Known about the structure:
By secondary structure, the protein is of the alpha+beta class. It has helices at about 15-25, 65-80, 100-110, 150-165, 210-215, 285-300, 360-370, 400-410, 415-425, 430-435, 450-460, 465-475, 480-495; strands at about 5, 10, 30-35, 50, 85-90, 125, 140-150, 165-170, 170-180, 185-190, 195-200, 205, 225-240, 245-250, 255-260, 265-270, 275, 310-320, 340-345, 350-355, 445, 450, 505-510. Helix content is about 30%, strand content about 25%.
Amino acid sequence: MTQTTYDLLVIGGGINGAGVAADAAGRGLSVALVEADDLASATSSWSSKLIHGGLRYLEHYEFRLVREALGEREVLLKVAPHLVTPLRFRMPHHKGLRPAWMIRIGLFMYDHLSKRTTIEGSKSIRFDPAGPIRPEYVRGFEYSDCRADDARLVVMNAKLAEHKGAEVLTRHTVTRARREQGLWTVTIQPENGNMFTVQARSLVNAGGPWVRKVLDSFDNVRIDKTVRLVKGSHIVVPRIHDEEQAYILQNSDGRIVFVLPYLEDYSLIGTTDVDYSGDPRTPEIDDDEINYLIAITKDYFRCDLTPGDIVWTYSGVRPLMQGEREDDEDASRVTRDYHFEVEDEHGKAPLLSIFGGKLTTYRKLSQAAVSALKPWFPGMSEPWTDQAVLPGGENMTHPQPYAEELCRRYPFLTPKTARRLAFSYGRRAELWLDDAQQEADLGERFGALYAAEVTYLMEEEWAQTVEDVIWRRTKAGIDMSRQDRERLVTFMAAQSGAGSERGPASRLASA
């Protein structure tokens, strides 16, 4: 770290921590972001990959959250066009569940709670008898939300923070924090190195599932609030339908399951809601969750899906805001809203802790968190991130035209590869494609990845291990052979002296 005292030290490198760091750095604060593992190494990389208003939250009367989330869809489409793209959803009408009139009212509200400029509205539809849906589902509804690359959204927020002057330290653990003479003294333990201390005028605890653990490592902190940990699991199977739309399936228990087109060749099915008490770093799907997701999919689709069809699974732990009377409430009904707890000591050294939140509203949450610190930093500038294009999204409205541009500029790229690069890196792909004239100029291949690409990820995007590269910076691990992974370990070790392969918080069926 280049400074001994920072205006703000952010603990946690998930979407909220990265968002807060970027927002604060852009308002003129000196910022350090400290993450114990890799960026997006927990909850923020194991989501349903959606930016959505939360249609079912309307049933729980969470109108403020839905309105804010709907508004953020439009903002993120503008500031992250390479990572957030529109997606149409189809909902087959199940006559035994929510009545059609209720769904129409819900969709009307979904269309009008917030201003839409690029998102299409909802409509009623009839299903093709020869289509992928079972014949008993004749009618349905269609509406819009957005798909997203969750982990890359985190990394690009960290890059934005860095561009604004913030320092980003991964694999550094905050082991203790205490107030001394109006400042925080923070003890930091690198993964490989000697412990050191820095000072900060304020702290933000964006620990996600570890928000309580972080608080417990502080001296004399008077916050007793906690979070409820809920596991959400997903399965990935070969594509079960050829349509470009996603599906939202109602279940008799009141929950919903998404079936999403994923990585062109697959369907992503999820999620579950299961209370969780284990290590948030290592959740795994269980047989009950697998059977649950398969059963609801087969209830709606003409397919013979079995556990043997699964090519990949992943699970994440959501840190949901725990209400006073929610201990016995079904996990799927617990709010996805967020809450801040702020305390200081004699008007100095504030600590802001974040409880709850969801991927869609990270930018709004981050803006509100930094604004909450303004009494201690009256000179900070005004909010700005609603106009700040994330790195890679410059001069772009959608990745597909840029993919076509890449094919023209680099004719050795296949259309599928060009789409992968456009939807992952946006214009930052040019930083490592550079002036390549042929594929060989990009170096050794590791499955879908090029050596030049991996080197870029290590030098520019904080990737240190194979897991960082193939499960977060990219999703190349799903198609990568064991031999390619082993060669990638060797290559990364030669590049940095590290390059270990850690076990991901997922299960690859072919591994």
